[in-house]
Amino acid sequence: MPIDLYLNPGSAPCRAVLLTVRALNLDVNQKLTDLMKGEHLTPEYLKINPQHTIPTLVDDDFSVWESRAIITYLVNKYGKDTGLYPEEPRARATVDQRLYFDMGTLYQRFGEYYYPQILAGAPPDAEKLKKLEQALEFMNTFLDGQEYLAGPQLTVADLSTVATISTLELTDVDFRKYPNINRWYEKMRAEVAGYKEVNETGLDHMRAIMEKFKKST
């Protein structure tokens, strides 16, 4: 049976999953889900994901949501020999730590700073900006002497985090002043399979959504 992926291409977590799908050369059935129209709140959708979030993956009779759970599941099932999610315990722990950092620190602080400005017309919060910049400093340190975020080769930590970092291009936050992040980001743009088609096209979609919200607030 085909793999169904419920998503919105502008979402950074959705883009992370799509980059992983491309890296694994998987064929998935993309089901565009419009949150503004409440397509994530239908009874059918709630059966597969009671939290009604995107992205959500349905593989045969198994459903999973939260992008980082999805991408590790995909590699565990379809790409163990790729090195994208190493099996050696210490290497995997490093990848997991970076994924949790992306979810619970970097992306969370980005959302806390920027989404109130876009969705509610709130003024920039200097304290929240400091917290986001602190997260970027952490990431810059992770990349000291490292080509990739979690070790000597590309992993799902890079694919997830590049979707987050690239979204900062739509804001007034200058992540390029962090030299290690900037170097890594340029490498990801050149190296990650399908980056332009998946991530940059998704960013264009997100930019249009943000502009729409700016005009309405």
UniProtKB/TrEMBL annotation:
Family statement: Belongs to the GST superfamily.
Start and end residues of each GST N-terminal domain: 1-82
Gene3D superfamilies, sorted: 1.20.1050.10, Glutaredoxin
Domain of life per record: Eukaryota
GO MF, one annotated term: glutathione transferase activity
Limits of the GST C-terminal domain: 88-217
InterPro entries on file: Glutathione-S-Trfase_C-like, Glutathione-S-Trfase_C_sf, Glutathione_S-Trfase, Glutathione_S-Trfase_N, GST_C, Thioredoxin-like_sf
Subunit comment: Homodimer.
Biological process terms in GO annotation: glutathione metabolic process
Protein known as: Glutathione S-transferase 1-1-like
Ranges in a coiled coil: none
